[in-house]
């Protein structure tokens, strides 16, 4: 044990618990023991962070707390058995999907796997859709680097991939005139990180841009490069383009073990059979530490940081024009931004998110106190908004390491493994830039094993499902003439046609559940929250895909929407009745 | 193309009645319906109890709708189905509507008057702040009803019902008859929301317990509902900490209120009454926007479809009168109808047009609380127009009152008083 | 003494019914139907039942039906069994009898919607 780990151990014993031990392993520090609360686990991890260590591996347990294991898909078959592939990407969020697109440029076989029934079911569909400008991350971090680079790339990418994107700019609002004094500090940080165009807005300017903003606002800092898009539509767009160019995607596929030989991964076991990849990319989000452990290369631990957000009715959408952030940037915990109000690309107002540590990596439940707190904190920014405008709320889990920075690197100990882990915010903004670097790394590793070249016919252009209700009538009519089902409105709150729903079911990453159709078309996201359209969407799914209604699910096997056909079985009488 | 005199949005009971009346009175009429079949929500309301006042019979929803559909067919009232109104705006003729369907694509029609008969939607679990996970198996009662009655599927095997509104009670019985088990009905208020006879026919008949002053505070289950957390609530309907119990079930049916659909009204900047969530109207059911009328559940949530049809008829009749008098452009003089908000949930209409030729006014109102032995008086300028004693007044049971102000030409305001 | 809510009409009178020396005494009824109802409830409760029947028609898998008169309450679930056996494979009109004299009650199961009309694609303009 070195001096440093001794020192840390003593600090932990003193500040948190005597039941914690630490030891060094490779370049990391491993914490073990038992404490009373999750807060202690988190604090211990934070205390152990040190520049001298590559990462903190936190194995401390909480007395009496049983953290559930990773939720496994119910599917079990041999579909992928003995498959040999060049690159295996583990994780179908925006990170894995953007990497798949980059790799699809090459004449290689790529397989992307995700344990859920659809892509983007974890963090990638549970965030505010903001393409951050890159101001918040600490200078010199990977976050700062990838955020700024990625942000710039979105103009071209969203055009190529037919994803709606708006650079609305983001505004950190000030509540008193003294806050203006921080402007030079912010500008310095911006310069450091390479963020362009930052400037101060005085009260008249901010009121002009956001006429409904609270009278208490004295000014704001504008970051013009910030933008908004739909993060799950972006993920799906990346993936569809990848599939267009030859990438295979296998959903409901979970990696359970890896076999190594001479510091190389030779096989990966899944519930669909054992695969033989040449290169493995760990883009497994909140579970990226567990994937690393399978390759005996866990040098970090993910501590799941939960956040909740609320969506307000589109009717009030005109009260906010862009992104308004509450200034918690100045709390020097660069771990979470202050949250605020975001005018989403679809026209709703998103409120939040908040951030708090908790032990569950897949707990997407919302709770009243959290939601109330978020509403209370942010709704004052625009007084005409009220909690009565809320139409839905949701939660997400950030995959944060204790070092609070991205891990984007070739494994130091496993020759054919690349880690893309700990991608918390600004992960969405950073994704395209991360993907480019990961492509390089993967290709470097692969080139040593075999001769590879780029495809000559790589097609960067992907067309999404048409949004008829936003089109000019002429164009809309053209489409309806060619396909009458584009003229039949199924979801009346969001004006989504039968044709669009059919497109989602038949797309390159087909929607096979109600939620998957919702993510691709918005059917069910309106004010009645699928009250009217869910049975209709289910019927279309039944007709188009050949499923039986009994197999139609909300989000994959186990979430079937109905239990049975009526009048199939005998009924037992109840109450004041005779039974036969 | 010449504008229609009256265009009606919705072919449920309100829209069908309105269209029938307008057409029979000679208006160039069109009814627009977004579903492929007529009848609106009545198609799935297969239980009886409809039409006692209108037809003096106890009909089921489909039968009631069928009567109107037959009249529509016999009179050849123009109707288009599977057609969605994507935009409405004012223009020199009155109104321009953009419609979309699979046959014609997007196209425009013009109308001199509009009748909004779009009905209502159900309050969602998010709107009553139910937290927890988002499993399959959580349905509003109307959606569950569609699955069972129209498509023939059971949404759950053992469920809890939140809300003792009529739809929830009807579904409790329906699901039981189709083989599901209702663990119980939970109601946050201290009194049931639905009609007493439904408590009797739907719950007591089947030994389904109703728990008043209780609510669901959490839904449990990652993929499919596994259980709910139930809490007792205080008299402000706030959950009392420490009273939580877990009830196992595989479905949650919510019957927590209906909200009139007024997106189109709002897009025309028509003011809505927060008490009804429907537009402010005068005795002719015309909203504060000249030429736009409202009827049925879009105006306020009714409990009897007979009154829905009645309001549709009024709207149809008055819309044509309006169109006939457009040239003479008699200005409305709206005087307010005042009532105590603590005593009444709402009173419709909210205004009287004292310049109108029609001064026969039909009031629809609801008491805020259950009251015994009260008196309702309607007066204006110290004159009493209506005075009646009531044994019971209950919020779920709407009252209908008619007064005739035909000879009255001067009024400052009307007061509706409960003593 | 039993408390009942009358279900004959939407008024829903609260009735109190008691048997006093072989006679049923009913309080609270605002009309004679209520009195009749209360006595029936205590001696042989009757209900009308509405439900749906299966059909072979893809676009209308269920057709709403009802009993054309009230049947003894205790037979409701047996009635459901009979209704559930039906698989309608021909078009019917509102009021048409689908099951005659179910369970010997004298009540018929009749259609409450037109299957004919639903099957025909009809545009009214």
Estimated radius of gyration of chain C: 19 Å
Counting copies of identical and different chains, the oligomeric state is heterotrimer
Please describe the biggest sheet of chain A, giving its number of strands, its sense, and whether it closes into a barrel.
Answer: 9 strands, mixed
User: What letter string, H or E per element, gives the SSE order of chain C?
Assistant: EEEHEEEEHEEEH
Task: Spell out the CATH superfamily of the largest domain in chain C.
Answer: CPE0013-like
Mean pLDDT of chain A equals 93
Task: Give start-end ranges of low-pLDDT stretches of chain A.
Answer: 330-336
Second-tier CATH architecture of the domain at 167-226 and 303-401 in chain A: 2-Layer Sandwich
Q: Do you know the CATH topology of the domain at 167-226 and 303-401 in chain A?
A: D-Amino Acid Oxidase, Chain A, domain 2
CATH architecture of the largest domain in chain C: Roll
Q: Structural class of chain C, please? A: alpha+beta
| Span between termini of chain A | 77 Å
Distance from N terminus to C terminus of chain C (CA atoms, Å) equals: 60 Å
The total number of structural domains of chain C is 2
> What's the CATH topology name of the largest domain in chain C?
CPE0013-like fold
CA-atom Rg of chain A in angstroms: 25 Å
List the keywords.
heterotrimer, A: Histidine-containing Protein, Chain: A, D-Amino Acid Oxidase, Chain A, domain 2, Arc Repressor Mutant, subunit A, 9-stranded mixed β-sheet, 27 strands, C: 125 residues, CPE0013-like fold, 5-stranded mixed β-sheet, 3-stranded antiparallel β-sheet, 22% helix, 32% strand, elongated, disordered C terminus
Q: Can you characterise this structure?
A:
By secondary structure, chain A is an alpha/beta fold. In chain A, helix 4 (about 140-160) packs across helix 10 (about 425-450) and helix 12 (about 500-505) crosses helix 14 (about 535-545). Mean pLDDT of chain A is about 95; it is low at about 330-335. The model of chain B has no long low-confidence stretch (mean pLDDT about 95). Chain B has seven helices and 29 strands. In chain B, the strands form seven sheets. In chain B, strands 1, 2, 5, 6, 7, 8 and 21 form a seven-stranded mixed β-sheet that branches. In chain B, strands 11-19-13-14-15 form a five-stranded parallel β-sheet. In chain B, helix 4 links the parallel strand 13 (about 160) and strand 14. Helix content of chain B is about 20%, strand content about 35%. Chain B folds into three domains: about 1-120 and about 260-330, FAD/NAD(P)-binding domain; about 125-255, 3-Layer(bba) Sandwich (FAD/NAD(P)-binding domain), CATH 3.50.50.60; about 335-420, no CATH class. Chain B is globular, with a radius of gyration of 22 Å. Chain B is α/β, with parallel strands linked by helices and about 425 residues long. Chain C has three helices and ten strands. In chain C, the strands form three sheets. In chain C, strands 8-5-6-10-9 form a five-stranded mixed β-sheet. In chain C, strands 1-2-3 form a three-stranded antiparallel β-sheet, with helices on one face. Chain C is elongated. Chains in contact: A-B, A-C, B-C. Strand 27 of chain A pairs antiparallel with strand 12 (about 155) of chain B, so a sheet runs across the interface.
């Amino acid at each position: 044990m070195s001096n440093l780990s001794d020192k840390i151990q003593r600090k932990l014993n003193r500040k948190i618990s005597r039941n914690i031990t630490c030891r060094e392993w490779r370049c990391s520090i491993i914490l073990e023991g038992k404490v009373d609360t999750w807060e202690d686990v988190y604090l211990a991890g934070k205390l152990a962070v040190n520049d001298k260590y590559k990462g903190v591996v936190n194995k401390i347990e909480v007395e009496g707390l049983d953290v559930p294991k990773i939720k496994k898909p119910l599917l079990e078959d041999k579909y992928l058995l003995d498959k040999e592939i060049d690159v295996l990407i583990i994780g179908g969020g925006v990170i894995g999907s953007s990497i798949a697109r980059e790799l699809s440029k090459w004449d290689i076989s790529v397989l992307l796997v995700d344990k859920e029934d659809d892509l983007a079911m974890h963090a990638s569909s549970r965030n505010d859709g903001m393409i951050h400008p890159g101001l918040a991350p600490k200078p010199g971090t990977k976050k700062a680097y990838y955020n700024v680079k990625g942000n710039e790339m979105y103009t071209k990418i969203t055009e190529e991939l037919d994803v709606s994107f708006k650079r609305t700019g983001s505004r950190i609002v000030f509540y008193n005139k003294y806050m203006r004094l921080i402007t030079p500090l912010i500008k310095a940080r911006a310069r450091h990180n390479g963020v362009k165009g930052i400037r101060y807005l005085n009260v008249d300017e901010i009121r002009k841009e956001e006429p409904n903003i609270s009278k208490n606002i004295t000014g704001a800092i504008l970051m013009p490069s910030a933008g908004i898009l739909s993060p799950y539509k972006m993920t799906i767009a990346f993936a569809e383009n990848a599939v267009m160019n030859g990438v295979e995607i296998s959903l409901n596929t979970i990696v359970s073990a890896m076999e190594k030989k001479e510091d190389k991964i030779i096989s990966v076991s899944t519930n669909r059979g054992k695969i033989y990849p040449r290169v493995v990319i760990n883009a497994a989000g909140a579970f990226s530490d567990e994937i690393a452990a399978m390759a005996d290369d866990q040098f970090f631990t993910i501590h799941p940081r939960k956040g909740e957000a609320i969506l307000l009715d589109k009717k009030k959408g005109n009260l906010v024009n862009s992104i308004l952030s509450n200034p918690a940037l100045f709390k020097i915990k660069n771990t979470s931004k202050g949250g605020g109000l975001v005018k989403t690309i679809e026209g709703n107002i998103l409120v939040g998110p908040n951030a708090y540590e908790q032990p569950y990596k897949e707990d997407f439940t919302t709770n009243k106190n959290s939601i109330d707190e978020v509403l209370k904190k942010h709704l004052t920014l625009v007084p005409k908004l009220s909690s009565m405008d809320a139409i839905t709320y949701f939660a997400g889990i950030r995959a944060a390491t204790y070092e609070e920075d991205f891990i984007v690197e070739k494994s130091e100990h496993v020759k054919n493994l690349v880690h893309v882990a700990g991608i918390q915010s600004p992960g969405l903004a950073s994704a395209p830039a991360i993907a480019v670097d990961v492509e390089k790394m993967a290709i470097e590793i692969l080139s040593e094993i075999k001769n590879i070249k780029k495809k000559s016919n790589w097609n960067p252009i992907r067309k999404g499902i048409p949004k008829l209700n936003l089109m000019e009538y002429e164009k809309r009519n053209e489409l309806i003439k060619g396909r009458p089902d584009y003229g039949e409105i199924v979801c009346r709150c969001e004006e989504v046609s039968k044709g669009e729903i059919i497109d989602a079911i038949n797309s390159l990453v087909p929607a096979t559940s109600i939620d998957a159709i919702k993510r691709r078309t918005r059917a069910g996201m309106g004010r009645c929250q699928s009250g009217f359209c869910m049975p209709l969407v289910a019927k279309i799914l039944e007709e188009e895909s050949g499923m039986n209604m009994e197999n139609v699910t909300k989000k994959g096997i186990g979430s079937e929407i109905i239990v049975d056909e009526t009048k199939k079985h005998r009924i037992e009488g109840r109450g004041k009745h005779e039974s036969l | 193309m010449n504008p229609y005199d009256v265009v009606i949005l919705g072919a449920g009971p309100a829209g069908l009645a309105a269209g029938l009346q307008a057409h029979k009175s000679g208006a160039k009429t069109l009814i627009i319906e977004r579903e492929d079949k007529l009848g609106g929500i009545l198609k799935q309301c297969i239980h009886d109890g409809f039409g006692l006042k209108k037809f003096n019979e106890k009909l089921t929803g489909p039968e009631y709708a069928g009567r109107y559909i037959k009249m529509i067919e016999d009179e050849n009232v123009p109707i288009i189905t599977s057609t969605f109104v994507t935009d409405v705006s004012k223009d020199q003729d009155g109104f321009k509507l953009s419609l979309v369907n699979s046959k014609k694509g997007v196209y425009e029609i013009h109308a001199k008057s509009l009748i909004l008969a779009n009905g209502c939607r159900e309050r969602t679990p998010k709107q009553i702040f139910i937290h927890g996970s988002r499993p399959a198996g959580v349905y509003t009662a109307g959606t569950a009803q569609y699955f069972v009655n129209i498509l023939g599927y059971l949404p759950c095997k053992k469920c809890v019902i939140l809300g003792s509104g009529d739809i929830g009670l009807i579904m409790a019985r329906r699901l039981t008859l189709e083989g599901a088990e209702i663990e119980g009905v939970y109601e946050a208020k201290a009194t049931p929301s639905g009609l007493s006879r439904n408590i009797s026919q739907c719950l007591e008949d089947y030994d389904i317990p109703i728990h008043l002053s209780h609510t669901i505070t959490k839904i449990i289950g990652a993929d499919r509902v596994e259980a709910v957390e139930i809490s007792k609530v205080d008299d402000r309907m706030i959950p009392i900490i420490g009273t939580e119990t877990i009830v196992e079930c595989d479905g949650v049916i919510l019957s927590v209120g209906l909200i009139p659909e007024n997106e189109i009204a709002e897009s025309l900047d028509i003011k809505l009454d927060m008490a009804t969530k429907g537009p402010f109207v005068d005795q002719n059911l015309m909203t504060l926007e000249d030429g736009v009328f409202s009827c049925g559940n879009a105006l306020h949530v009714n409990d009897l479809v007979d009154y829905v049809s009645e309001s549709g008829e009024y709207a149809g009749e008055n819309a044509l009168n309006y169109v006939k008098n457009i040239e003479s452009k008699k200005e409305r003089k709206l005087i307010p109808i005042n009532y105590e908000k603590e005593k009444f949930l709402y009173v419709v209409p909210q205004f009287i047009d004292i310049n109108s030729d029609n001064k026969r006014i039909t009031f629809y109102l609801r008491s805020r609380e259950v009251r015994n032995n009260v008196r309702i008086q309607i007066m204006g300028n110290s004159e009493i127009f209506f005075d009646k004693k009531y044994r019971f007044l209950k919020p779920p049971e709407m009252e209908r009152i008619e007064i005739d102000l035909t000879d009255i030409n001067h009024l400052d305001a009307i007061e509706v008083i409960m003593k | 003494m039993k408390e009942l809510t009358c279900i004959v009409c939407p008024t829903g009178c609260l009735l109190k019914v008691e048997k006093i020396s072989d006679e049923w005494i009913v309080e609270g009824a605002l009309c004679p139907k209520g009195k009749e109802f209360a006595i029936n409830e205590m001696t042989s409760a009757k209900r009308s039942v509405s439900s749906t029947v299966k059909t072979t028609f893809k676009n209308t898998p269920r057709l709403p039906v009802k009993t054309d008169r009230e049947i003894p309450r205790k037979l409701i679930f047996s009635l459901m069994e009979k209704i559930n056996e039906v698989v309608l494979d021909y078009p019917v009109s509102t009021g048409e009898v689908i099951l005659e004299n179910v369970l010997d009650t004298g009540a018929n199961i009749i259609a409450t919607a037109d299957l004919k009309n639903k099957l025909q694609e009809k545009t009214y303009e």
